[in-house]
Amino acid sequence: MAATLNLPTHRRKPLNHSPAALVAPVALAVSVIVWAALAVAGMSLPVAVAPAAAAGLLIAVLLHWRAPRAALRTLRAGPLAKGDHPRLENLLEGSCTTHGFSEPSVHVVESPAINAASVGLGRPAAHLVITRGALSSLDRLELEAVVARQLCAIRRGVAFPTVLASVSRLPGAGPITAGLAGRVGGFDAVTDVDVEAARLTSFPPALASALRKAADAPSVNTSRAGAHLWMVAPQRDASDAGARSSTLRRIDVLREI
User: pTM for this structure?
Assistant: First the structure.
């Protein structure tokens, strides 16, 4: 019988903005630029409104619906071939069957880092991303805990972080989206998912151990556009020294459960 977990209750509400809030400003900016260009080219201002609006709408649709593909490219993730890692496949299938998750597709990043991510616009079409280092270095319980954590992230909703990664790839968007990325990958947000996964598995030490190994392993090589998607924030340079400290604090939270 699983032990009763003493889970923290003083949590902040998760960031749950609509992806439309990300693509709308970009679409508006494109519409204005196209409208101005057509006006300069000699088209009357009222007539130029329709093609300008269409251009903005097209950009919004592309940014939104192509966001998962863009996020996977940002993470440098490729599909994991069926049968390539039976242990992961069995753990994923078992967790989804037992806890009622829709099974995501699996993608792998060829890196010695120990890390994982979740992207997608909805639960039925979500993607689980995991590094080769996690597959080779985590034991069964640790890998199960990481899988459970990323499934919990998908259930909470990863559309906004996924679209944010897509928008962040645009030239000049980095400084504008950095604040939102900080909230998505902030301590409260990621710890909420940690605690939910601990509730799911009833064995917090496994996730704590996986996070410890991730903190001690080499950091995954990724761009800033997708850094907020990772389970453990990448430490790319000295300015990201707080990433390891945040991970150690998350481990402490799990140990207190």
Answer: 0.86
